[in-house]
Amino acid sequence: MVNYRLFYLLSVLAGPLLGSTVRAQNPFITNQFTADPSARVFNGRVYVYPSHDILATPGRGRVGWFAMEDYHVFSSANLTDWTDHGVLVTQNKVPWVKPDSYSMWAPDCGYRNGKYYFYFPSTPRDTTINKGFTVGVAVGDKPTGPFVPQPLPIKGVRGIDPNVFIDKDGQAYLYWSQGNIYGAKLKENMLELASEPQTLGELPTKGLKEGPYLFERNGTYYLTYPHVANKTERLEYATSTSPLGPFTVQGVLMDESPTGCWTNHHSILEFENQWYLFYHHNDLSPSFDKNRSIRLDSLFFEPTGAIRKVVPTLRGVGLTDARQKIQLDRYSRLSSHGASIAFLDTLNKFQGWKTVFASPQAWVQYNGVAFGKQALRTVTLRTQAAAGATVQLRLDGATGPLLAQVTVPKGSQWQEVKAPLTAFKPGTHTLVVSSQTNSPVAIDWVKFE
Ligand code: FUB
User: Fold this and answer.
1) Range(s) for CATH 2.60.120.260 in the chain?
2) Site: Important for catalytic activity, responsible for pKa modulation of the active site Glu and correct orientation of both the proton donor and substrate. Where (predicted)?
3) Confidence (pLDDT) at 398
4) 220 CA → ligand 1 middle, Å
5) Interatomic CA distance for residues 183 and 259, integer angstroms
6) How far apart are the CA of 315 and the centre of ligand 1, in A?
7) Residue 236 reports pLDDT greater than 60
8) pLDDT at residue 397 in the model
């Protein structure tokens, strides 16, 4: 049984870390729950506009369901170091939103003529506007705001999950969902529909579809969307030669979560000649899938233009500087016996994870560690081993050059243990860490100096 009150209090104390840098692999935001990431490139920097899940408590949202009262925006220049720019829009500061509805669901943001347009769904306080969800806009001069909400939602839109797309000819479109997926042209002012909403009707008719995200590549319009084909949402896509279709269903770009997170919701963008899929999973809340966390993995196209299925990873993208804390628990590969991942503190999951080695020869592999050119001389492990342990660090595989052999003194507390390096190889390498001991040893992180 989860102690929700204690869990909520700890999560509030843990974050948010405004203006601070969060460095992580997957999930890549770990100071709060985040979901439904809409990623955009503005002025050479990546901005992510996610939903902000919180844990509903009596009087604060509907217990056991989604609860979202505001939006944060995060940005990064390298997809590894993320800055939380704080709150953009809050439910009780939007004139048309029911101020205690906790229904600030999946947003998106677009840029036109010097202004940023932040689209977000919520439930109106005036039910004559709409009884369910509708979509509003807030306008800002910078991608991080401040954003000023329009007094009323966009006329003619009923539903959730707005997605904005501006075509090469300058025509803007808005997509959204309400069981089906809808699309319409936007006026030049980006605040009103310029055409009647149209159902994008060539998509699967059985099973919920939501979370549309449309992008264009080489003249093909890709309409991507979560769809419940079986038990939970998987990510699928359809293509067309025009932004409002007709679309041809092409297939699945990410399978259902094997661990049962019911929703998935994504965006796709190209940044510095590489395509990426932003999506979510419930990594920081494995037993309650309405508290989600956003992730990021590389996405590739086949020569035919088909999207290659993305397999979720913990390692995520980008290089990790050897001088920073390397979170081995966001591994690339893990030995099938004797190695496992666990939360550092099950009462405060925002603390992250540890790698636990339970038997000799258990190993973990972490790819893409940038050692640089200048020789490094020591390695430090944050580690704990009740009976003491010996740990080996090698480069480029289990039989690769030995970097260090570290003796972990016995003790019940976490300790930072430093050891000299016996070798150094410049450049980017795979790091393999293994236990040489029968008794358990846990590692939080390793770093080199
Ligand atoms: O985040 C709330 C809802 O869950 C979103 O609007 C859907 O797309 C699903 O991710």
Assistant:
1) 320-448
2) 161
3) 85
4) 26
5) 32
6) 24
7) yes
8) 87
